[in-house]
Write a structure and sequence with these properties.
Helix content: 25-40%
Distance between the termini: 101 Å
Order of helices and strands: EEEEEEEEEEEEHHEHEHHH
Strand content: 25-35%
Radius of gyration: 35 Å
Strand order of the largest sheet: 1-2-3-4-8-7-6-5
Number of strands: 14
Structural class: alpha+beta
Number of helices: 6
Shape: rod-shaped
């Protein structure tokens, strides 16, 4: 049992922390009081306990794959299929009092950068309709942005915009875990090939690039090399790390709006640059009528002389 993670009931009466956790770190382990038996929906507040009871009422015993102290945190990996990776973060609150929070990757609140998202319309568009792929689960709603959404199947990307019936831009959304899986499985090159066929496209990651180098289930260098190869092979499809979900959504909104404006400018340029239709050649009757008005002697039939044709051409450019 010394190498196991153990959960028992707290024998203290009237406590708001009804469980005891024994973390297998050090000779005697670390004992904490906790509010829950696992951080499923949010961080779990913990507090140091005096010690482990002599005759505990054990709730659960789980073998431990690894338990490592890293600075102000303890990384715990349990030997089971689900609910196996968590972290205890040691911090201090007001007054210098110690506080310990038990969290998982799902419940850990993403760091919020000290920025306020703008509310101005993207690229000055009064409205923007964003197409959400019908297979996208837990889709962005763009509630903060001045945009509406409609669901239908997209051939590439999770979010797109259209001009007429043509999709002119698309964005593929990735969490860090999904990005790593797509890169290491080889699926990324096919995904990027589909996106590269569009006039404008990008991959947006809901995390920081620095998070790549904190991965422990796969070598960070492997992921970094795969990212570099993807960008070299498909330079027209950038992979953008946007730090948080909110910033990734904002970047996507601005990118898609700019793509709509650019597509309109391209269409206008093509129309302006198109050659004008050729003027119809004048008929012999028109040339004869003009020649008589100018005093030339012309026959009613046969070819019009070169002299008259040249004079007509000079007069009419």
């Amino acid at each position: 049992m010394p190498d196991d993670f153990v959960i028992a009931r707290n024998p203290e009466e009237g406590t708001t922390l009804p469980y005891l956790l024994r973390i297998p770190l050090g000779e005697d382990g670390i004992v904490l009081k906790a509010k829950e038996t696992w951080p499923r929906t949010g961080k779990v507040y913990c507090h140091r306990a005096v010690g482990w009871p002599l005759d505990p009422e054990v709730v659960e015993v789980v073998p431990t794959r690894s338990c490592v102290r890293r600075g102000a945190s303890i990384d715990l990996v349990l030997d089971r299929g689900r609910e196996n990776r968590s972290q205890f973060v040691l911090t201090r609150v007001r007054g210098g009092r110690e506080a310990i929070f038990w969290q998982t990757a799902r419940t850990a609140k993403q760091a919020r950068p000290a920025v306020a998202l703008p509310s101005a319309r993207a690229s000055g568009l009064p409205e923007l309709e964003i197409v959400v792929d019908s297979h996208e689960r837990y889709a962005w709603t763009f509630d903060h942005q001045q945009a509406t959404t409609v669901r239908r199947a997209l051939r590439a990307g999770d979010y797109g915009v259209s001009v007429g019936q043509e999709i002119v831009a698309a964005v593929e959304r990735k969490s860090l875990q999904d990005l790593v899986s797509t890169l290491t499985s080889g699926r990324m090159r096919y995904l990027l090939a589909d996106l590269a066929a569009l006039p404008a496209a990008a991959v947006v990651v809901e995390d920081r690039y620095s998070a790549v180098f904190k991965l422990d289930r796969v070598r960070p260098a492997v992921v970094a090399d795969a990212l570099g190869e993807s960008q070299a092979r498909f330079p027209t499809v950038p992979i953008v790390f946007c730090e948080t979900r909110a910033l990734a959504q904002e970047w996507t909104y601005r990118f898609l709006a700019a793509a709509v404006v650019h597509a309109g400018e391209e269409r206008h340029t093509r129309l302006e640059a198109s050659p004008l239709p050729a003027a119809a050649s004048p008929s012999p009757a028109q040339v004869r009528a003009w020649a008589r008005e100018q005093g030339y002697a012309v026959s009613d039939r046969g070819r019009v002389s070169r002299e008259i044709l040249d004079a007509f051409a000079r007069r009419h450019g």
